[in-house]
Amino acid sequence: HLISMKASEIKGLTISEIEEKIASARAELQKMELAHVVTPIENPMKIRQTRRDIARMTTILTEKRNSENKK
Q: Is there a smaller number of Cβ atoms within 10 Å at the N or the C end of the chain?
């Protein structure tokens, strides 16, 4: 399980590493949401946290791609 990553930790990763983490976080989120529909999970805040992690990683990925294109 991904524990919420800080923006500074994400910025230290390469573009491909960030893409990998986004893919695994999305898969995990999908599993959590499905499990939550069947039987409510003990910590629904994990779903929100994972969603926000994905958003944070996507934002930094966009920043990195934009800065690479400007070079």
A: C
The end-to-end CA distance of the chain, in Å, is: 35
Structure tokens that stand for 60 in this block: 């930094």
Q: If DSSP codes are grouped into helix, strand and coil, which group holds residue 71?
A: coil
The pTM is what? 0.83
Q: What is the DSSP letter of 44?
A: T
Query: Which of 7, 25, 5, 2 is CA-nearest to residue 64?
Result: 7
Q: What is the DSSP string of 48-60?
A: HHHHHHHHHHHHH
Q: What is the dihedral of CA 39, 45, 18, 71, to 10 degrees?
A: 140
Query: Which amino acid, one-letter code, is at 63?
Result: E
Please spell the DSSP secondary structure of 6-43, one letter per residue: PHHHHHTS-HHHHHHHHHHHHHHHHHHHHHHHHS--S-
